[in-house]
User: Fold this.
Amino acid sequence: MYGVVTRNADEVSMEPFDLGFYEVKDVTGRAAEPLPNAVNMVSCFGDNAAASENDDLVPVDERGEPATRDREYFDWAYICPTHPEYREGLLEIIADCAAENEAVRLDDVGFPREGFCHCDRCERRFAESDRDDFTDWRADVITEFVAEAADLIPGRLLLTLYPDPYPDHLRARAGLDLDRLADHVDEFVVPLYDTEYATTYWLETIARGFRSRLGGDYDLHGAPPETPFSLELYAVDVDVDDLIHATEVAETYAKDVFFGYDANNAAAAVRRKDADSRDGEVHRPE
Assistant:
């Protein structure tokens, strides 16, 4: 199955895609009304606008440095996952999305990096918890949030993952404990973005790593992952032939393939790929 990720409401039902994802809240803080004919997407703890308006929302490391986009390695500003009012607002948005379409996708879930967050609230909550290890406590925070969200979503819950399948990296980096999250998540989505896809060995390596990490079999003819995952490719200004090749690699390992932010280019790639496959068919006479 092929899907498209878009900020344009008129593209969610576009041919030849089987599924449309619509950004209801993105990392800029831009908000839109959820759609009934799309899997509505919510950027949970990425929010430039909210972070710029209220410093108390922003996670800090042990030195008090904030996780904002004016620092190296941060593409957007983050929000502390323990902030109660922001978290409550997120759950309200998720509930509104689920009221329009029973399937919802959560993006940007987790702490920004290792070492976050050491705000006074997080320090206090960690001290009051029954955890001795800060990493374990962070995993509790994120798992509890996803569990709360799952209770509001009657259909499928999809969760975006940072593209790092190495064991324990996601847990250490963002507080994402995949084994525990699998109890609440129906499907993981892994964005593997590139502006060219001139080479795809790295795409195959990461895709195969996730297949193994999520309980799948190295043998592609064997058992699929216990929790399915899909791959998302970047489609903006990517050469169609390169995008087709990336799609062929991605669909070898993943349940489905989604395309981000250029529906027309992605549609051209899917149509040409389908046409090429039909040209290669041999029909024998009865």
